[in-house]
Amino acid sequence: MTLILSLIHAQYALQVSDRQLSQEKQPGQYEAWDRASNKSVILLGHDGLISMGYSGPAFISGATTDGWIAEVLAGVDLGARKSRPNFGIQLGSGVPDRVLYMHLNAITDRLNEAIAARQVDRTLDIYGVGLCSSSLKKQAWPVMARIHWDRVKRCYAPAMSKRRWGCESGRSFLFAASGLF
User: Which of 16, 30, 62, 149 has the most CB atoms at less than 10 Å from its CB?
Assistant: First the structure.
């Protein structure tokens, strides 16, 4: 089971998710694989900070999903395919001048390549919440992002809330929940 709760408010962004990874031992029977794992990645881009959590498969191409996402973002091998990956905190990025949406596009492109190679299924759902800013001198605004399987387009697709999603006009929050049971 996986649960991700994402909330953005006019002044903050919040995301909560469980941590346990499980593996399918027999069809329909799952067993805890790593109770101390992580299902989130934090990304600092040129225009903001976003926390991404996922529900769906625990592994993509033999790597833990959070490790696979981190490797796509960093552009280097971080050891996510090891039997018990432990790459901890990595500071920096392969492309530090990218804006957050470009990072989401990079993940989406790699997911679509993994779909074509049958290395991932269509159940992966990535939610992100964070803060964006056009300048350090201007107030940041909360954002929500999602990468999901688009049934109409028949591929993974990214989406990100617009800068003016409603917090300026009195809308108090946006909320999303994702999970697999």
Answer: 149
Distances (CA, A) of 122 to 12, 55, 111, 150, 154: 31, 11, 10, 9, 9
CA atoms within 13 A on the CB side of 175: 4
- Distance (Å, whole) CA 87 – CA 74: 12
Does residue 117 lie within any of the structural domains? Answer: yes
Please state whether the predicted TM-score (pTM) of the whole model is above 0.85.
no
Dist. CA 159–CA 147, nearest whole Å: 6
User: Which DSSP symbol is given to 150?
Assistant: E
Q: Is residue 10 part of a domain?
A: no
- For 13-62, what is each residue's pLDDT tens digit? 888 887 777 777 888 787 777 766 778 888 888 888 888 988 888 889 88
Domain residue limits at 134: 34-164
